[in-house]
Write a structure and sequence with these properties.
By secondary structure, the chain is of the alpha/beta class. 30% of the residues lie in helices and 12% in strands. A hairpin with a 5-residue loop joins strand 4 and strand 5. The longest helix has 18 residues.
Amino acid sequence: MPAGGGPTAPSAAIWQPSPNFGARRDGARPDIVLLHFTNMETAEAAAARLCDPGTGVSCHYLIGEDGRLWHFVDEAQRAWHAGQGCWGGVCDVNSRSIGIELANRGNHPFPEPQMRVLDALLPAIMARWQIPPERVVGHSDIAPDRKDDPGPHLDWRRLALQGLAIWPEAGASADPAAFRSLATRVGYGAGFSDREVLAALRLRWRPWAYGPTGQAAPDAADMAVLADIAARFPVDRDGQGA
């Protein structure tokens, strides 16, 4: 099997090894799943880019809109998909994550065949590495200053109902003055502006209400989301964010 080979690949996956990987630094194990969209015309074009040694990018898996699944880098290896993002205390997200790209331009829903494959892939990864649902996040969560994927059309609630992500429950709001402290407890990094963090929060949990370019200050609904997630799923609850 080629270096970085695919023993963790699902049997139905297309094994297309990417040269763009390395060892996880300092013996790190994955404890984050990071979801992306490709923003390319076709899944095949995305696969070619993720395997091109000249691009310096890769991920572990790609799911096409028709449900085809590609596997590029073994889960034990460090793929190059997270850039300089941070989540909680983790700022080498590549060493601590498994990256899944979804073929999508970001301006339309994710088709059912694609979602069914994601529904099946996520629990296997999470069980293999003991990753809790609160650590399944989007690229926009870890890099709200420069990324908006997987975008407003990913059905996070569908994933949450299966225990594969989290979703806010109705509850009391909080004082807007607590916005940054609550956002930090959720996992959003301190190096981003309030506007950037608010945009990421709305992309993830309130896309139907405002989207990423709504008002610049959090409202009561934004604060209720933050208060609930921070109380139930603080990023460092088990010391994993350190």
